[in-house]
Amino acid sequence: MDGDINQKYRIAELPLDGKIAEVDGLIPYRNGNGYFRNVVLAVAGVLDTPAYVPVTVFGTDATDLDPQLDLERPMKCAGRLTSRRYLDRNGNVRWAMSLSATGVMLGPRKTMDPQGVSQDDASAVAGAAEVPDDWGGGGEDIPF
Length: 144
Prior knowledge:
- It contains two helices and six strands.
- The chain is mainly beta.
- β3 (about 35-45) and β4 (about 50-60) form a beta hairpin.
- The N and C termini lie far apart (about 75 Å).
- Residues about 125-140 have low confidence and may be disordered.
């Protein structure tokens, strides 16, 4: 246990493939040069039950996620499992495990997925496509 108390040890890289179940808020780096956020990913667990895995996402992967729009969005990544040791307030050595995402690939948002469009939304889009010629332009091109 010599050396830096905060030294990280990479344990494994796990392939993760699931849907986003929760997106936390952006957290700025201490030096102010970027952001990270925590995401809960629902992956296939034992006997087809979902397993919820907390993953930390960094940089543009973190800033591109939206807490409301990205729920149920497919996500694939490599989960880098690392351990870190620290001293608690009593001076005892403790270990913390964390899973950070690398190589993040996001699928389409549910709101942009044609199969995720409700019947009301589909009829509204179809009605909007049928704009009559007497909308004020008389079917002529705008002269500018």
